[in-house]
Amino acid sequence: MSLLLLGGTADARAIAQTLIGRGVAIVYSIAGLVRTPNLDCEVISGGFSRFGDLQGYINARKISAVLDVTHPYARRISAAAVAAADACAIPYWRFQRPGWRPRPGDDWRTFSDWRELLPALTGKRSVFFTVGQLPPIAVAALSRLPAGQRQLLRTAVRPGFELPAAMGWQKAIGPFAKADELRLMRANGVDVLVSKNSGGEATAAKLHAARELKIPVFMLQRPALPAPEKQFSDLCACEAAVLQWLGLSNAKPMQTTFQTSADGYRGSNND
Q1: In the prediction, which pLDDT does 49 show?
Q2: Is the backbone peptide bond immediately before 223 cis, with ω within 30 degrees of 0?
Q3: What is residue 206's three-state secondary structure?
Q4: Count of Cβ atoms closer than 10 Å to residue 245 Cβ
Q5: What are phi and psi of 177, to 5 degrees?
Q6: Distance from first CA to last CA of the chain, Å, rounded?
Q7: Which helix (H) or strand (E) is 117 found in, with range?
Q8: DSSP string covering 153-203, please?
Q9: Half-sphere exposure of 143 toward its Cβ, with a 13 Å CA cutoff?
Q10: Alpha-carbon distance 195 to 271, whole Å?
Q11: Other CB atoms within 10 Å distance of the CB of residue 89
Q12: What is the side-by-side strand order in the sheet with 167-171?
């Protein structure tokens, strides 16, 4: 039996390494925007369009099950995977790391989408965006904000659009340290942090820095995703369930290097 693992996060690499170490046949898929992981299995980068579509690939390769360990905001691929697995009558499981939760001293405002969030930026002097690639609606709206506002966008790859005149760009991949985040926010006079609730420790330092500097955080809520057959929020539980399904539950455990922390699992290295 073979498992299609939809990855692109540190959690996905951790699970893949564990399952490969147990002899599980894995095909690992990534969007291909940042870097290709060094895994001892087949890695597909850039999607499934060259195979026709995801359903066609599953049928052609006789995939037995799909494990979705993509970013919590990867709505499109997760929805496509649910539909393809259902059409092919194979299991679809999802691992989704826990989201961040506000702590004492945090000043969070949550928003359901960009349409709700963007008007709240009016009157802010310096906005720090740590949300990955900005959608077209945000790019258009930000270019029309009042003169005098500065914006800093941090992403793992160059934005696929022309930056508004008031926007600077920083290329960076986590994990990030709190001291560096404090230095960055102070140097840019940041008075609001815009973030997705990605969860994980790799990019949580920005939240600790915002708390210390008493900077409000505008948090985009996670999108609603189609319900999976099984969903996990614990790496070990997810690995154990897959191994049990494959009849390998008695195999000797392989220690993972991704451990839990106060802020949840070490997750994607991207904002």
Answers
A1: 83
A2: no
A3: helix
A4: 16
A5: -100, 145
A6: 34
A7: helix 114-117
A8: EEESS--SSPPPTTEEEEE--S---HHHHHHHHHHTT--EEEEE---SSTT
A9: 11
A10: 8
A11: 6
A12: 108-111, 217-220, 192-196, 126-130, 150-155, 167-171
Contact (Cβ atoms closer than 8 angstroms) between residue 168 and residue 142: no
Residue 47 has which token pair? 């999607």
The answer to whether 24 and 46 have CB atoms below 8 angstroms apart is no
Q: Which two tokens stand for residue 226?
A: 């189609």
Strand partners, 153: 129, 169
Classify strands 25-30 and 65-68 as parallel, antiparallel or unpaired.
Answer: unpaired
CA distance 22 to 243: 8
Can you count the helices (H) and strands (E) in the chain? 8, 14
* 253 or 1, which is more confident: 1
The pLDDT value given to residue 148: 84
Query: For residue 240, which amino acid is it?
Result: A
Given a contact cutoff of 8 angstroms between Cβ atoms, the answer to whether 271 and 195 are in contact is: yes
Q: What is the pLDDT of residues 35-68, one digit of tens each?
A: 678 898 999 988 888 888 999 999 999 999 999 9
Task: Classify the phi-psi angles of 129: left when phi > 0, otherwise alpha if psi is within -120 to 50, otherwise beta.
Answer: beta
**Secondary structure of 21-68 as H, E, C letters:** HCCCEEEEEECCCCCCCCCCCEEEECCCHHHCCHHHHHHHHCCCEEEE
Q: b vs e for 152-184, b when ≥16 Cβ sit within 10 Å of the residue's Cβ?
A: bbbbbeeeeeebbebbeeeeebbebeeeebbeb
Output the pLDDT for position 47: 82
Q: Are 34 and 270 in contact (CB under 8 A)?
A: yes
Tell me the C-alpha distance between 93 and 234, whole Å: 13
For residues 220, 78, 174, 101, the Cα torsion angle rounded to the nearest 10 degrees is 40
Amino acid identity, position 79: A
